[in-house]
Amino acid sequence: MKILVIDVGGTHVKVQASGQRSRRRLPSGPGLTPYRMVLGVRDLISGWHYDVVTIGAPTRVQRGKIAAEPANLGRGWTKFDFSHAFERPVKLINDAAMQALGAYEGGRMLFLGLGTGLGTAMIADGVVVPMELAHLPYKKATYEDYVGLRGLERNGKKKWRRDVADVVGRLAIALETEDLVLGGGNSKHLKKLPPGARRCTNADAIKGGYRLWAEPDLQG
């Protein structure tokens, strides 16, 4: 079975498929509707062969369906028929949960994605538990306002790093984490990782998209 994985982010859509060494991408952003995403991806992968599709979306996904419009993209995601558009079976998953799945090694793992916003997911004994912790109150705003891109640009790297360390520590303790994983494009700005943390990469997001089909015991 050949699997096409689509990782939809706030700035880029990244695409890879079984048997393809290269990862391709196209621009994302506030004007990206699901229809435009599908057209862009189909042009991008012309000539690729695949049997099924995994889509990681930057929003809430419940029981295999997009439950809320993505904050940083265009509209129309909640009612779009992706299986019809790709003419293949499609599995939808939160983008943070997909990257977490790729990095998972067992036990109770908390994933925090430091990107445009704050992606959060937990995997407990093989069961993926997407979370929306980013908008919980923190200081004078929310976690995302301090450790997402807005906080980095507003406060600078030094203060942002302190806030990341504080937020990571709070969430790891509250959720009784056994394994702590940090991802997202802005994790590269951390001089050192918080105690007990390890880092994953964008490649883990693609791996998670494969695992969703290839390892049925893992529940997305």
Chain-wise SSE layout:
Blueprint: E1 3-8, E2 12-17, E3 24-27, H1 34-44, E4 52-57, E5 61-62, E6 65-66, H2 82-86, E7 90-94, H3 95-103, E8 108-114, E9 118-124, E10 127-131, E11 137-138, E12 141-142, H4 143-147, H5 149-174, E13 179-183, E14 197-199, H6 202-214
Number of DSSP E strands: 14
Q: Biggest sheet, open or closed, and with what strands and sense?
A: 5 strands, mixed
Write down the secondary-structure element order. Answer: EEEHEEEHEHEEEEEHHEEH
Coarse structural class = alpha/beta
Can you describe this structure?
The protein is an alpha/beta fold and 220 residues long. It has helices at residues 34-44, 82-86, 95-103, 143-147, 149-174, 202-214, and strands spanning 3-8, 12-17, 24-27, 52-57, 61-62, 65-66, 90-94, 108-114, 118-124, 127-131, 137-138, 141-142, 179-183, 197-199. The strands form 4 sheets. Strands 3-2-1-4-7 form a 5-stranded mixed sheet, sandwiched between helices. Strands 10-9-8-13-14 form a 5-stranded mixed sheet, sandwiched between helices. The protein has a two-stranded antiparallel ribbon with strand order 5-6. α3 (95-103) packs across α6 (202-214). The two termini are 19 Å apart. The model has no long low-confidence stretch (mean pLDDT 93).
